[in-house]
Amino acid sequence: MAVPRPLEPRGIDAHHRLGRRLATPHLPQGAPTSPALANLAAFRLDRRLSGLARSLQATYTRYADDLAFSGSMRLLRASETLRRAVADIAREEGLVVNERKYALATQAGRQRLCGVIVNRRLNVPREQYDTLKAILHNARVHGPASQNRAAVGDFRSHLRGRLAWIESLNPERGQRLRRQFELIDWDQR
User: Fold this and answer.
1) pTM check: above 0.70
2) Minimal CA–CA distance to 77: which of 57, 97, 49, 51?
3) Hey, which residues does 67 pair with through a beta bridge?
4) How much is the pLDDT for 27?
5) Helix %, strand %, coil % for the chain, to 5?
6) 181 CB neighbour count, 10 Å cutoff
7) Contact at 8 Å (CB) between 143 and 136?
8) If we measure between CA atoms, which residue out of 128, 117, 122 comes closest to residue 162?
9) How do 112-113 and 66-70 pair as beta strands?
10) Helices and strands of the chain, counted as H and E runs
11) What are the backbone angles phi and psi of residue 108, rounded to the nearest 5°?
């Protein structure tokens, strides 16, 4: 299948470069094999970073390409040393740390990892909860079509998926939203 040619002349150069990249062997993002391949590629990195974490009496966790270290005040005091050591180990393993994604979070503030609030208990970020709550309310009052601004093909299933994600993190809040979802008249236009 060919990549559609852009209508505007200024996009032709980028289109040509993309075509050349896609012509070379590569793995698609999001393939079912991606997590297993990421784990294989990061095996040595994980072992080394786990050892580094243990030396600081901390815990190392990785999800895909997101690395997290959690621990006591000792870890906070060693944060600059940890940051440099992680960058060095990653470089030795042929990887690069994205410094723009680096974050230091203490118990005093919101700790967010992979889009999930991980402080005392797992939770959905407040703004995402509030947005879904508003969508469900407006879908009940004005009809679901009025809230499908992105023209999602199966909006009902889309909302069910978002609800399930919230319920998995915070069952009580998820059930409150689920009750609102159940009040929506899906035949309403």
Assistant:
1) no
2) 57
3) 62
4) 72
5) 55, 10, 35
6) 20
7) no
8) 128
9) unpaired
10) 8, 4
11) -70, -20
